[in-house]
Design goal:
single chain; Rossmann fold; 8 helices; 9 strands
Amino acid sequence: MHKLHFWLVAFFMVAHCTSIMADDYVQNNDIPYQENGNEYAKERCKLDFYYPTHVKEFPVVVWFHGGGLEGGGKFIPQELKDKGIGVIGVNYRLLPKAGIQECIDDAAAAVAWAFRNVTRYGGSTSKIFVAGHSAGGYLTDMIVLKKDYLQKYGIDADSIAGAFPFSGQVITHFNVRKARGLSSLTPMVDDTAPLYYVRKLPMPFVLLSGDRELELYGRYEEQAYFWRMMQLHQNDQCLLYEMDGYDHGNMPEAGHKIMVRHIKTICDGKKIKR
């Protein structure tokens, strides 16, 4: 009886941290990544890492969930599983318990964790990609475009292999405007807006949006203007996709397929194209 109790306890302790997902894939859950912060940071700043055990120097996608910066939780997108890719699903602090800069800082800390740790699991630091949907797309934009966020952790943002923001806000985030008494339909660009930091990038940067007639708050038009400004900064590896028939919520279903295809192309050392 005592032996049975011991093995049951051991099983549940291991299962809490590690789950065998499918042949040759493992998922480690609730790994803390933020060394600084209060109790709320300790509670929220955890990540899950799903990765292949049969691939050497595999690429890694750091994935940020959506939720308007005030909701949502980490997960591994189903469309990214069993593709020979490592995927890191990140929880970050949320409004209003945290400020916008803390949300962005957590995103940077999670990417820094990836650079410092993926080789231990068999991943490659030269193949780290950053992506996210909606609020996660916004966080992706900010930490790639404004180099200060990752520089704080000793990481050069230009060492990211590629970025894939899915329908991210590129003007000032609507919840930041809301806190300032502005309507979601009142556009604004300040130093919390990705548009404020448009620059020439050394890596591919792929903008993905839902159908312009179905998207949230003119999000496609934001992406289109963002793409044009990136083109004017000589970003020839910046592409824009519109997912016809997909709304803001379900556009990642189509977007993930595009991202996986481009990741393979980038890892093969080739330029991406539509």
